[in-house]
Amino acid sequence: MASKALLFAALFFLLLHPSATQSRLARHPCKSLVFFFHDILYDGTNSHNATSAIVGAPAWANRTRLAGQSHFGDVVVFDDPITLDNDLLSAPVGRAQGLYVYDKKDVFTSWLGFSFVFNSTEHKGSINFAGADPLMNKTRDVPVVGGTGDFFMARGVATLTTDAFEGEVYFRLRVDIKLYECW
Predict the structure, then answer these.
(1) Given a cut of 90, is residue 3 above it in pLDDT?
(2) What residues have CB less than 8 Å from 127, skipping those under 6 apart?
(3) Of 10-14, 117-121, 127-131, 156-160, where does mean pLDDT reach its minimum?
(4) What average pLDDT does this structure show over 21-38?
(5) Separation between Cα atoms, residue 48 and residue 180, nearest integer Å
(6) Phi, psi for residue 108 in degrees, rounded to 5
(7) In this predicted model, which residue has the larger pLDDT, 87 or 9?
(8) d(CA 159, CA 169)
(9) Picking from 32-46, 70-84, 120-134, which range would have the lowest pLDDT averaged per residue?
(10) Is the confidence at residue 178, as pLDDT, over 50?
(11) How far is CA 12 from CA 9, 26, 44, 139, 159, in A?
């Protein structure tokens, strides 16, 4: 009986020991990627090169201008080019397709749901993202919630950084993706 108690105490100690818990919690990405996502919002005059459009707006707003200071209530869909560098005119390696919803009245923030859809020689398939985007923060983390093809069932985090913007019509995001589950 004493040997069972001693064995239990030893196992309990090993489970609580800092080195055991640190090794379980220490995770390193299995894949790291960096892309640039270029969004050009339709403003009523730029239909030839717009890659996003307001599809829902509050009653006091319209669909060619974002609503108020925080843009609360606006729903924007997009089909934006993804590049390997910050040049909008670089060859796209895929498309960012999805939507963002400005979801707070008093703070400039949005909720994102989108996919990076690849069809290049280097990558095939998609990476899916969903989560809050507190736009006023320098960097924001959005969960990677899945994928297809080369990114089948991927899990991880994408760190978004606003790399450039021109008023409310154009913005560019640097997307630093760290995948922690790769198949």
Answers:
(1) no
(2) 115, 116, 118, 144, 146, 147, 151, 154, 177
(3) 10-14
(4) 78
(5) 39
(6) -75, 95
(7) 87
(8) 22
(9) 70-84
(10) yes
(11) 5, 20, 66, 40, 37
- Is residue 133 within 8 A of residue 171, CB to CB? The reply is no
Tokens 């960096």 belong to residue: 34
- Spatial CB neighbours of 171, under 8 Å, sequence gap ≥ 6: 39, 162, 164, 165
Averaged confidence pLDDT in the chain: 84
The first and second tokens of residue 140, run together, are: 């924001």
| Residue whose tokens read 């913007």 | 165
Tell me the whole-structure pTM to 2 decimals.
0.79
CB 182 within 8 A of CB 31: yes
Q: In terms of C-beta distances under 8 Å and separation of at least 24 residues, what long-range contacts does 114-120 make, across chains too?
A: 114/78, 116/35, 116/37, 116/82, 116/175, 118/82, 118/93, 118/94, 118/149, 118/150, 119/94, 120/93, 120/94
Task: Put residue 145 in one of left, alpha, beta given phi > 0 → left and psi -120 to 50 → alpha.
Answer: alpha
Q: What is the mean pLDDT of residues 42-65?
A: 81
- Which residues have a Cβ under 8 Å from the Cβ of 179 and sit 6 or more positions away? 29, 30, 31, 32, 33, 144, 151, 154, 155, 156
